[in-house]
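hi! just following up on the protien thing from before. the input was this:
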Amino acid sequence: MKQRKTKRPFRFEVFWLRDLTFIGKLKEWWKESEKEVKNQMHTFQLQLKDLKGKIRKWNKEEFDNIH
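and the predicted 3d structure came back as:
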């Protein structure tokens, strides 16, 4: 099997919205990722990065490999 040299881009999957717990988890993860940084854009960037990791982990645990 050939390994990827670059990371896959993050893609939002519409089927996640069918999971009744997803929106609640999303709100919870967003609050957990709040950072104390002076620059608001940097704070937002850090929160999105943290959220991306949590969504990827949740997706793998809930749906594994859908392809």
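The CA atoms of residues 26 and 63 lie 16 Å apart.
The chain has a mean pLDDT of 86.
cheers
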